[in-house]
Specification:
- The structure holds 2 protein chains of 2 kinds.
- Chain A is an all-alpha fold.
- Chain A has 2 domains: 90 residues; 71 residues, Arc Repressor Mutant, subunit A, CATH 1.10.10.
- Helices cover 68% and strands 0% of the residues of chain B.
- Chain B starts with a helix and ends in a 7-residue tail after the last helix.
- The chains are: A mainly alpha, B mainly alpha.
- Chains A and B meet through helix 2, helix 3, helix 7 and helix 10 of A and helix 3 of B.
């Protein structure tokens, strides 16, 4: 396997897998979808080598793979966003109580806030890294992260009452 | 310690903490009393960050050769045309062989007829053959020789 694939694509598997898991809430399905993305990326390696944002490409490709799977398997034409996938997918009963609770808190966030929150809290990325992957400014990252945390704090406070 | 947790949490909710401070906050929450909801949140996020996939590295695609590939569509068309041309050629060849055989039969029948008629003619010639045994013209016409 080429060093490019290992350095820029294969090394992202954990992060991409956890993103897919958030969307589909099924570990085996998230793995299958990610495997498909990696196989496609091997075929398009020459194109990816020239791409200014290979991680962003992988994230978009994974999102498209998820949407395509749900359009085909669920026979629902109208699915346009992963938010709709998250709404129709049931909770992962094999996950721990803590994980299920976090998934419920995060699920209701708007897509951009959810992605930024996840990349920061789960992946531990800097604002700069998140901004480059999502192709937005660091200021936008910070604003969206602030809104996401504020929203989650309100939900947690609501649970206390 | 609890004061530090409060301080870090306040910064955290305002999205003003650095990655180092967020790590410090997670570590402190594991030891401090209370903060149950925050513990669940950071505990769940911590569990999620440890999830790893079981995947196989995809096989590298074979290097493309310089040989010009014929597309399957063209290959299908070429095969169809070849079958059509072959069928026409075989049909023509069979028809030609059949015509040659018929002509041969006709020639053979004509030759057989000629041979048969020749045999009949030969049979009729037998009486003329017998003429050679007659000595003279007088014998033929029944004349007596003249005395001198």
């Amino acid at each position: 396997m080429s060093s490019f694939f290992e350095a820029y694509i294969w090394s992202q598997r954990g992060k991409l897998y956890r993103l897919a898991y958030f969307w589909v809430k099924d570990r085996a399905l998230a793995e299958d979808l990610l495997q498909n993305v990696f196989e496609k990326s091997v075929k398009r390696e020459a194109e990816l080598r020239q791409h200014p944002n290979p991680v962003g490409w992988l994230m978009t490709s994974l999102k498209n793979e998820v949407l395509m799977y749900f359009r085909q398997s669920k026979r629902i034409e109208s699915i346009q966003e992963v938010d709709e996938v998250m709404e129709i997918q049931e909770e992962d009963s094999t996950a721990s109580e803590k994980v299920q609770k976090v998934m419920r808190l995060v699920q209701e966030l708007p897509e951009k806030q959810r992605e930024i929150f996840q990349l920061r809290e789960v992946e531990g990325l800097t604002y700069e890294e998140i901004g480059s992957y999502l192709e937005i400014s660091q200021e936008q990252v910070k604003v969206n992260l602030h809104r996401a945390r504020k929203s989650i704090r309100e939900k947690i406070q609501g649970l206390r009452k | 310690m609890e004061t530090r947790v409060h301080e870090l949490l306040a910064k955290y909710w305002e999205a003003e903490t650095s990655l180092e401070e967020e790590k410090e906050l997670r570590d402190l929450l594991q030891t401090v009393e209370g903060f149950e909801e925050e513990k669940i949140l950071f505990g769940g996020l911590g569990e999620l960050s440890e999830m790893e996939p079981q995947l196989e590295i995809p096989e590298e695609k074979p290097k493309e050769t310089k040989v010009r590939r014929i597309t399957p569509v063209w290959l299908n068309w070429a095969a169809s045309v070849l079958i059509l041309v072959s069928s026409v050629w075989i049909w023509q060849y069979t028809e030609q062989r059949k015509a040659e055989e018929e002509a041969y039969e006709e020639v053979m029948m004509a030759l057989a007829m000629i041979q048969s008629n020749l045999a009949k003619g030969k049979e009729n010639m037998k009486e003329i053959e017998d003429l050679k045994y007659l000595n003279t013209t007088n014998q033929i016409f029944g004349l007596k020789p003249q005395k001198k």
